[in-house]
Amino acid sequence: MLIRLSGCFQLLEARVDWGQAKTLGLRLNRFAIRALILFAATLPAVPGQAMEIRQYDKMESQDRNEYVADLLTGTQKVLIDEGRSDLAARVNNLFTEKLGGDDLPLGLVEFGKNLALARVADAERAAQDPNAHRLEIEDAVLVTLQKNNIPLSRDFVRAFRAINSNFRPK
User: Fold this and answer.
1) Is the distance from CB of 44 to CB of 158 less than 8 angstroms?
2) Where are the beta strands (DSSP E) in 7-157?
3) 133, 73 contact by CB (below 8 A)
4) pLDDT tens string 53-112
5) Are 117 and 147 in contact (CB under 8 A)?
6) In 3D, which of 12, 20, 2, 7 has the Cα closest to residue 106?
7) C-alpha distances in angstroms, 61 versus 16, 57, 65, 72, 148?
8) pTM of the model
9) What is the Cα–Cα distance from 145 to 94, expressed in whole angstroms?
């Protein structure tokens, strides 16, 4: 059931220059940005185990693809370990099944939008308070899961944030 998604991310990387993306064409409003920050702030943080967006953006494209693919594969594993194989299957479908004539799975498109929102929110927050907690890639994935009605327990979030704790870019 665990599926590597790096091929999908290469397609996504080819269509969107993540280093230059700000909004992916979305009309951002202050409510959406604040909602993302508020959601991320309510998640239990595990220091040193998640990757800040600004650090992620400095990685090579292949490393970024691998990082997110590992997160999604790890998400499924954590859910299976929790006895929630039904949710693991929903995560798998969200990030692998393409609807209609779409080029990308809905989960990847939504993740891209959430990541763009998180980049903007993170930059605005850091400009206001340089000591503020920086948003992380994991926050964008968690928001994507939540928006798709995948329940997030505190235990899941803790285990999720530790998935890539040993990741090292090549």
Assistant:
1) yes
2) none
3) no
4) 999 999 999 999 999 999 999 999 999 999 999 999 999 999 999 988 888 999 999 999
5) no
6) 12
7) 11, 9, 6, 17, 26
8) 0.73
9) 9
